[in-house]
Amino acid sequence: MIAKRQACVIGWPIDHSRSPLLHGFWLEKYGIPGRYDRIPVRPEDLSDFLHGFRARGLVGGNVTLPHKEAVFRQVTVRDPLTAKLGAVNTLYFEDDTLCGTSTDGYGFVASIEQEVPDFTFSGARVTILGAGGASRSIIGVILEAGAQKISVANRSLARAEQLRSDFGPQVIPMEWGRAEDVLPGTDLLVNTTSLGMAGKAPLTIDLAGLPGHAVVSDIVYVPLTTPLLTAARARNLRTVDGLGMLMHQAVPGFERWFGIRPEVTPELRALLEADIEGRRL
Length: 281
Ligand SMILES: NC(=O)c1ccc[n+]([C@@H]2O[C@H](COP(=O)([O-])OP(=O)(O)OC[C@H]3O[C@@H](n4cnc5c(N)ncnc54)[C@H](OP(=O)(O)O)[C@@H]3O)[C@@H](O)[C@H]2O)c1
Prior knowledge:
Blueprint: E1 5-11, H1 19-29, E2 34-40, H2 46-51, E3 58-63, H3 68-74, H4 80-85, E4 90-94, E5 97-101, H5 104-115, E6 125-129, H6 133-144, E7 149-154, H7 157-167, E8 171-175, E9 188-191, E10 215-218, H8 227-234, E11 238-240, H9 243-249, H10 251-258, H11 266-276
The structure holds NADP nicotinamide-adenine-dinucleotide phosphate (NAP).
């Protein structure tokens, strides 16, 4: 009999996580005798949990709020980009060592590449709204992909300035209210703030200055169509919602744990869309 490989997502709370739906879809699709569960872990229990990770029979997993930074400090980080981020969202074993990595930035780039195939990061002028954890992961990867200039507007300017210190002079910090000034020279606009999320205030920015070729992306995925994306579509700009990033960030973890690189397909998107919209397929 083939042993069942087990992975999980840890967080506190964890009920909201869509990762089991996503990984469960791939396990079934590829006929893999594995499982993927939600495991609630209180912050005070995190160290014990990580020490007992292998003993529980787990081969890896995902990490969500509020544990991303604390786990980073307690596992081995082997890739230089994740070392710069200070947070991990994916756990895996290399030999017997529990390692952590961040796949959010990869997920963002893969999602843009899949949904806007003619967009190229090499030489791109990108404007990012927000300077939190997701912004940091995206900046690291799009710089590696060749972005020319990344303007970062954030409510707390100091956080955007820190990104320049960490990633270099291609990152241009700016006050929140100045974002519209750089839109005429923007090829890709990305919202990484929580504005526009269900229950939060909408993001209000006048998109009139964006050139017609610009792509607008919102990494918020509840709701799928945020006020920012509605405004971009009203201007006939190409848009990318946050669901692609969610699906693609899960690919490297699944491959490490279960040995197959899974595909992000319209069927998977339809399943998650239905879940987000509270429908049954
Ligand atoms: N699609 C995906 O796969 C994916 C992955 C990761 C995250 N996300 C989404 O991305 C969003 C950010 O996540 P995160 O982990 O980066 O969070 P975070 O580290 O807490 O950062 C939050 C960001 O939002 C800004 N912000 C919050 N309230 C604001 C307001 N009222 N006005 C202006 N700016 C405000 C913060 O600005 P300050 O610095 O001034 O506080 C900061 O830049 C969340 O909605 C999350 O669900 C999506």
